[in-house]
Amino acid sequence: MERTAQLITPSAERSIAYDPPGSPPPLHARAARVLEGNWTGASTVPSRGLYPHQWSWDSAFIAIGLRHLSPLRAQTELETLLAAQWGDGRVPHIVFNPSVPLDAYFPSPDFWRSSTAGRPAGAPRTVQTSGIVQPPVHALAAWLVHRADPGLSRARGFLARVYPRLAAWHRYLLHRRDLGGGGLASVVHPWEQGMDNSPAWDLPLSRVTPAPARSFRRADLDHGAAEDRPTDLDYGRYVRLATDYRDGGYRDGPGGSRGVGTGGFAVEDPSFNALLVASEHALARIAAELGAPGTARHARAERLTAALVERLWDPKSGMFLCRDLRAPAPDGRGTLIPERGVSGLIPLLLPGLPRDIVRTLLGTVSGSHFGLGTTTRLVPSHDLLGEAFDPHRYWRGPAWFNTAWLVERGLRTHAEHRQADALRESVLDLAEATDFAEYVDPYTGEACGATGFSWTAALALDLLHSDTTVTADMGFMGGNRR
Asked: Which residues fall within 8 angstroms of residue 385, CB to CB, at 6 or more apart?
């Protein structure tokens, strides 16, 4: 056997050495190759090494891109995720692959204990999941996937099967997670919002006693540089919050996500709620496709938009801010967190925003705090002028492709086509140049994190193939009417 190997190896080396290198395949083919490599047969992992399971909002973004390659796979992506939905309606942020070793990712299934600790909330018994959630992009994704091949979707009954699950998901967020009483959904852990260690979390996290470092092992540091990842202190606080939520039976409210004393974490986030509004509009489109009136859902989306403006718009900052519901305040509503993050720009997606707010947001996107089109190539995740800005550390400054896609769609929603075109070109150029990096330095475009990242490939595909002038398929009723 060893002798055969010696005979084969030199021949293979000569082939590589003397064959002229081929030209790189076009972006479509390269993105398709990433998504094929990360496909498990039922869903797509974000990254084979760093994130070896199925993630909730990743799968929604991945499905949006997959629809250009295989509408069937895109439908399957969402169906697999929604099959792990809990009885109370929540869609968990991770669906674990049982074939992946427990030590490949932390927190692993034995940390979350979903089938036991989550039993009162209706966690599934046949699949292991986490107990927290992620942003509700799913109804928007389902609508776009349907539109990619309506014939296939109708033949498979795709919308008819996912609609009840999506409706239950939204009910959970609108009722069980309205912790501030103002109509908006709250997140109870930084991981739920998706922008894990944004500086917006620093103040509410400062009230959380971190879990002892010896109580967990960070598998993420096996795949990324420590200086680019959340600190050990922040990670200890993440673990403490998740542990307390688990030990409270994943209950939302007293004894659950509210925690004890001032230690709880409950934040109303603009991006999370803007995506809920967008998905409510999409659910209205889905309802109409199924023969039911969607007017109530459109009306609910408009009420959510009004609540978003009333509770999270900050004229002085020129953007939306997060509200810390556990911070002491005379009116009991918590306080706005004075940190400018990309989350506060995502409401540009919404066609019902007042025009003066749209104008202000457009100025903020291109102004000195985010510099899009002047000093930055993609939208940074945090204020360029903020004390906490770091161009490489996870969500504290680097630019991400999913938020770039959301801002591009938002610019187009408000007919800012020139700026949207420029951002689209930057996304496509950097996705290809960085081998579909997880995120990039906002100034230089240098790749950071993992490469071959699924949502980067998927959303590049979507921008490559999507109409650059029409946004009706985004699930909204129409353009800005105010």
From this structure: 368, 369
Query: pTM, whole model, 2 decimals?
Result: 0.90
Tens of pLDDT along the chain (482 residues) come to 333 333 233 333 333 444 455 555 699 999 999 999 999 999 999 999 889 999 999 999 999 999 999 999 999 999 999 999 999 999 999 999 999 999 888 899 999 999 999 999 999 999 999 999 999 999 999 999 999 999 999 999 999 999 999 999 999 999 999 999 999 999 999 999 999 889 999 999 999 999 887 766 655 555 556 566 667 888 889 999 999 999 999 999 754 444 433 348 999 999 999 999 999 999 999 999 999 988 999 999 999 999 999 999 999 999 999 999 999 877 778 999 999 999 999 999 999 999 999 999 999 999 999 999 999 999 999 999 999 999 998 899 999 999 999 999 999 999 999 999 999 999 999 999 999 999 999 999 999 999 999 999 999 999 999 865 545 455 443 333 33
Longest CA–CA separation in the chain, Å: 81
- Residues recorded for the chain: 482
Prior bond to 270 cis, omega within 30? no
Q: Which amino acid is at 228?
A: D
Contacts of the segment 1-4: beta carbons below 8 A, 24+ positions apart: none
Separation CA 152–CA 372 (nearest Å): 39
Question: What residues act catalytically?
Answer: 196, 438
Tokens of 467: 């109409």
- The single-letter code of the amino acid at 71 is P
82 Cβ partners below 8 Å, 6+ apart? 91, 138, 162, 165, 166
